[in-house]
Design brief:
CATH topology of the largest domain in chain B: Rossmann fold
Largest sheet of chain A: 6 strands, parallel
Number of domains of chain B: 2
CATH superfamily of the largest domain in chain B: Crotonobetainyl-coa:carnitine coa-transferase, domain 1
Order of helices and strands of chain A: EHEHEHEHHEHHEHHEEHHHHEHHEEEHH
Low-confidence stretches of chain A: none
Number of helices of chain B: 18
Strand content of chain B: 5-15%
Helix content of chain A: 25-40%
Number of helices of chain A: 17
CATH architecture of the largest domain in chain A: 3-Layer(aba) Sandwich
Mean pLDDT of chain A: 96
Oligomer: heterodimer
Radius of gyration of chain B: 26 Å
Distance between the termini of chain A: 36 Å
CATH topology of the largest domain in chain A: Rossmann fold
Strand order of the largest sheet of chain B: 3-2-1-4-5-6
CATH architecture of the largest domain in chain B: 3-Layer(aba) Sandwich
Helix content of chain B: 25-40%
CATH superfamily of the largest domain in chain A: Crotonobetainyl-coa:carnitine coa-transferase, domain 1
Number of domains of chain A: 2
Radius of gyration of chain A: 25 Å
Strand content of chain A: 5-15%
Number of strands of chain A: 12
Shape of chain A: elongated
Largest sheet of chain B: 6 strands, parallel
Structural class of chain A: alpha/beta
CATH class of the largest domain in chain B: Alpha Beta
Chain lengths: ~400, ~400
């Protein structure tokens, strides 16, 4: 995909990556794919917690085998530094000295405690861009609150607008605020780098996960601030579109999403179904009336979808110009021919688990060059590359640090 | 422009100097344009004469008064943009667009592939004339692949991404309930947010390769890319996922609502037992390990809810966090933005509105110490900056602008 011989967009940029778990690693793997030299720094006795997430092939439960870690840490160099040790702190500062960006998402106060506050980092590298990512933001009365990303679905109010209207709020499945923050961090760093290229100026940026989530709920926030209205769970609805829901299909727990936005869509939808009598029911004659009678309408649509597979419904409706698509589980999503055709899944060779897929950045450049992808590092895999090739330390120096337990 | 130039100098965002043309409607691309504009880029939004961006007609409206300039969503999505109207399907419209692109770094296109071709905005055509242009194309399924001509949108993306299948993440829901999209327009916002990142990637690629770029963003892929662990569970462990929440994000009931907590590590469990007042049931040896606790999860939740019935979600949040337990209240949107933390950071800022007035809304999740986010102007009224852009910038004579208006081109 890459243009032969063309430098990658971020070649020449070095990232001192102190981040771990989810949001930070998600961001830095993209920067690595864009060509930045990402130096992931893990504590030799306190590695990235996501090495221990139990997503494993049968029989592999060690910290090098977690699919969670592998999908979040591609295209990075991995090294170990115990920066709670005075010599480790010195080593971390040597990495910072050659870096354009430093990023961390530790619990509040950790960087200050070990001596890597922004002031101390800037003393080493005055034009550095430093990013502190945290659940609540680095300032404010509750800045030190402890969190997992999923719990911020609750705090941010995202859950309050998610769920079946008749059953009250529900949790958004899987991880959401974490990868959203990861994306936000990537945008933040690219914007800061753009400014630095023009002006030479680095800076500190404080990123809040709660706020990244609220950014994407503005219609509810402003309906509250302007009109005093507090929204509840929205189901699968969007505005007054109907039918607009997920409908049962042939097979166990199989569903198809159908979105009829306007009158033109409704005509197309009716035609695609061969205009059964109920599509001419006066209750369904216009959009507002369809929306008001959506429960009756949904039941009739479901009678039709139940006789068919999600794929059949999708193809039939799409051919008529109606937005439809299966509600995929992970297996179906991974097998989707369109995602495959666009090279969305990239296989990389990992020294412990072999060839495994990762998801590339969700866009393509033409002519490029596009991304570079290699497998997540094993713990300390690139110690020699980082300490000897990049920092220029000699073998004796590296050995001494290893003997003292500063590196692995 | 004198005043706005002064304002820009007062608060230079990191993207000051970037010139962006936005030919898009709805949510995803306008959000992308807004993110760039709020950080200092100049964004000229082109709307269809007469009708404008359909998002202008999407409620809720300011003070519940519908009107083309009072949609709160439209106002939020289009802050800091200059607004012009142009029918690019006409010869004059195409020519004026061409002159705008001459000076632009970025074209943001949003819509269906067929519209892109009909408007002559395909990148293959543009690259000849504008070799340094970064063309960002956000379409339902991308510019290539078997579904490229399909119809999509929020609901379809939310479900095809595999996020819908996991939602709601409540274990005790009947299985005949359908999968759900998350609240709001998350697929479209994530697509717009991702497109903003992709735009900057395209600009860095332009600098590195010395030539413009076509940036192809499928609205499906950004939210799908949130499902990397979901994919890994399938590929590594053969688990295709289900609408159950495992141990995360369980909503627990209390006196006045619900709260969520995750007690993963042993020290958190010890802190929880202390908060609960060391009840007898917690002495059971099964509760002393994480594996043992996960076997007794249902029972644990029941015990905790019995205790929690005596406290409000705010009390439980404060008591828990004081003990370093990851616990949070299930907030409404109102409770979230009114929380002490969100308020103290000034996250809500007055968003000036195209219809006049202002309403507090989200500012930005990133606080740049040197190049702050800023609002310099409200979302444009339809065609508000026609004169300024076409006559002032492109030098179109007044009479020709008037003629173009008569002909419905602007």
């Amino acid at each position: 995909m890459a243009l032969e011989g063309m430098p990658l967009p971020l070649s020449g940029v070095t990232i001192a990556d102190f981040s771990w778990v989810l949001a930070g690693p998600r961001c830095t793997e993209w920067l690595g794919a864009m060509g930045a030299r990402v130096i992931k720094i893990e504590g030799p006795r306190r590695p990235d917690q996501y090495r221990n997430v139990a997503i494993h092939e049968p029989g592999h439960t060690d910290h090098e085998s977690s699919g969670a870690f592998h999908t979040l840490n591609y295209s990075k160099l991995g090294c170990t530094v115990d920066f709670t040790h005075p010599k480790g702190l010195g080593l971390a500062k040597r990495i910072i000295a050659i870096s354009d960006v430093a990023i961390e998402n530790f619990a509040y106060g950790v960087m200050e405690k070990v001596g890597l506050s922004y002031e101390e980092v800037r003393a080493v590298r005055p034009d550095i861009i430093m990013i502190g990512s945290s659940a609540m933001g680095k300032a404010g009365p509750d800045k030190a609150h402890v969190a997992y990303g999923q719990l911020l679905h609750s705090f941010s109010g995202l859950n309050s607008v998610t769920g079946y209207p008749e059953r009250g709020p529900s949790t958004v499945g899987g991880t959401y605020t974490d990868p959203l923050t990861g994306n936000t961090l990537a945008f933040t760093i690219l914007a800061a780098l753009w400014h630095r290229r023009r002006t030479g100026q680095g800076q500190y940026v404080d990123v809040s996960m709660v706020e990244a989530t609220l950014m994407q709920l503005p219609e509810y926030v402003m309906d509250y601030t302007a009109n005093g209205r507090v929204a509840g769970p929205q189901g699968n609805a969007e505005g007054v579109a109907a039918p607009h829901n997920c409908y049962p299909c042939q097979g166990e727990d199989k569903w198809v999403a159908i979105a009829v936005y306007n009158q033109e869509d409704w005509e197309a939808f009716s035609h695609a179904l061969d205009q059964p009598a109920w599509t001419r029911d006066p209750r369904f004659a216009d959009q507002l009336s369809r929306f008001q009678h959506r429960e009756a309408l949904d039941a009739l649509v479901a009678q039709w979808t139940r006789q068919r597979t999600a794929e059949e419904v999708t193809v039939q409706l799409q051919a008529a110009g109606v937005a439809a698509g299966p509600s995929y589980n992970a297996a179906e999503m991974y097998a989707d021919p369109h995602l495959k055709d666009r090279g969305f899944f990239v296989e990389v060779e990992h020294p412990v688990v072999g060839r495994k897929p990762i998801m590339r950045m969700p866009w393509l450049l033409e002519p490029g060059p596009n991304g570079q992808y290699w497998a997540a590092p094993t713990l300390g895999q690139h110690n020699d590359v980082v300490f000897r090739d990049i920092l220029g330390m000699d073998a004796a120096e590296v050995l001494a640090l290893r003997d003292e337990g500063v590196i692995l | 422009m004198a005043e706005s130039a002064e304002q820009q100098n007062a608060a230079p965002g990191p993207l000051l100097g970037l010139r962006v043309i936005e030919r898009a409607t709805g949510v995803s691309v306008p959000y992308c344009g807004k993110l760039l504009a709020d950080l200092g880029a100049e964004v000229i939004k082109i709307e269809q004469p007469g009708t404008g961006d359909p998002a202008r007609r999407v409620g809720p409206f300011y003070h519940d008064q519908p009107g083309p300039d009072s949609s709160l969503l439209f106002n939020y999505l289009n802050t800091n943009k200059l607004g012009v109207t142009l029918d690019v399907a006409t010869q004059l419209g195409a020519e004026l667009l061409g002159r705008l692109l001459q000076d632009a770094d970025v074209l943001l296109f949003g819509g269906e592939l067929r519209e892109m071709e009909a408007q002559g905005l395909g990148y293959a055509r543009l690259r000849e004339r504008y070799p340094r242009l970064v063309g960002v194309y956000v379409t339902p399924f991308g510019l290539t692949g078997p579904y490229r001509d399909r119809w999509g949108g929020e609901l379809v993306s939310a479900h095809m991404s595999a996020l819908g299948y996991l939602t709601p993440g409540d274990k005790d829901l009947p299985q005949d309930m359908p999968p759900l999209k998350p609240g709001g327009r998350q697929a479209l916002f994530v697509a717009g947010q991702t497109a903003a990142t992709a735009t900057l990637h395209g600009l860095f690629a332009r600098e590195a390769a010395g030539q413009g770029q076509c940036v192809d963003v499928s609205e499906l892929e950004p939210l799908t890319s949130f499902q990397f662990m979901n994919m890994a569970r399938w590929v590594y462990a053969g688990d295709p996922g289900a609408r159950s929440n495992r141990e995360f994000g369980r909503m627990l009931k209390c006196k006045d609502g619900a709260f969520a907590m995750l007690v993963g590590q042993d020290h958190m469990w010890a802190a929880l037992v202390d908060m609960l007042g060391h009840p007898d049931w917690a002495d059971n040896p099964d509760y002393q390990t994480r594996a043992g606790r996960s076997l007794r999860q249902q029972e644990t939740w029941r015990h905790i809810e019995e205790w929690a019935a005596g406290y409000t979600k705010e009390e439980i949040y404060r008591m828990g966090q004081a003990r370093r337990i990851p616990v949070f209240p299930e907030n409404t949107i109102a409770e979230a933005v009114d929380s002490a933390q969100v308020r103290s950071r000034g996250f809500l800022q007055e968003i000036p509105l195209a219809c006049g007035g202002a309403a507090p809304g989200p500012s930005a999740p990133y606080q740049f110490a040197e190049t702050p986010w800023s609002i310099r102007r409200p979302a444009p009224r339809l065609g508000q900056h026609n004169q300024e852009v076409f006559c002032g910038r492109l030098g179109l004579p007044q009479a020709e602008l008037a003629a173009a208006f008569e002909a419905g081109v602007v």
